[in-house]
């Protein structure tokens, strides 16, 4: 937590890009949400039909992959609503988003396991866009830790363990290029979410 030299260990990853995904499931739980026995029994799980559009990870289609396929994705979520017999609250289980900064060249990802909606990521996205030179960012929750820093025209990211300071990924990228990618990813996410809201009348993702 007190290591001020972590940016010196960062690996340059010029292909680093934000990735926002819809986290899908093969089943919907229709039992009592307060009964662990029912939750773990599997007897109250009902199968779901996944969207048919092409996705590299069918259980986690990205917003870029979902763009233009909003009716198909909405059909998936409509099944969930019909089976559970209620509309979702913001951030409800079964309607989570996944966030990551991914570098295929480095084979690494800066992960955000406790952010489930656009609003969870918004303060960090705002910081990335407005941070002054030499500014730092720190967040952590339930064992997860994120460090970020701006140093001149570069951004640095460290994903690690809060309790042990173990590093899982430590990457840096040119700020201008990355912010352009961030703008595009967030715009795509909001476009798809708006399409889902038109189809379903709800928005638990924003």
Topology:
Layout: E1 11-12, E2 17-22, E3 27-29, H1 36-41, E4 45-47, H2 63-66, H3 70-84, E5 97-103, E6 108-111, H4 118-130, E7 136-141, E8 144-151, E9 154-161, E10 167-174, H5 175-200
Helix pairs in contact: 3-5, 4-5
Describe this structure in words.
By secondary structure, the protein is an alpha+beta fold. The protein has one domain (7-200). Helix content is 31%, strand content 27%. The strands form 3 sheets. It has a 5-stranded mixed sheet. Helix 3 packs across helix 5 (175-200).
Compact summary:
The chain has 206 residues and is of the alpha+beta class. It has five helices and ten strands; from the N terminus they run E-E-E-H-E-H-H-E-E-H-E-E-E-E-H.
Supply database-style keywords.
single chain, five-stranded mixed beta sheet, 5 helices
């Amino acid at each position: 937590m007190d290591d001020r030299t972590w940016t010196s260990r960062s690996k340059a990853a010029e292909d680093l890009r934000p990735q926002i995904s819809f986290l899908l499931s093969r089943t919907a739980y229709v039992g009592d949400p307060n009964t662990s026995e029912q939750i773990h029994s599997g007897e109250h799980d009902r199968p779901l039909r996944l969207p048919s559009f092409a996705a590299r990870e069918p259980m986690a289609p990205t917003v870029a992959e979902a763009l233009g396929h909003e009716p198909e994705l909405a059909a998936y979520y409509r099944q969930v609503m019909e089976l559970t017999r209620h509309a979702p609250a913001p951030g409800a289980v079964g309607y989570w988003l996944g966030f990551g900064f991914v570098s295929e060249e480095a084979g690494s990802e800066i992960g955000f396991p406790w952010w489930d909606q656009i609003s969870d990521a918004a303060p960090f996205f705002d910081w990335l866009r407005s941070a002054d030179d030499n500014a730092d960012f720190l967040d952590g929750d339930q064992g997860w830790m994120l460090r970020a820093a701006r140093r001149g025209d570069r951004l640095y990211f460290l994903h690690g363990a809060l309790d042990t300071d173990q590093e899982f990924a430590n990457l840096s990228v040119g700020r201008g290029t990355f912010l352009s990618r961030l703008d595009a990813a967030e715009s795509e996410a909001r476009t798809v979410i708006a399409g889902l809201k038109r189809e379903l009348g709800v928005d638990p993702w924003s």
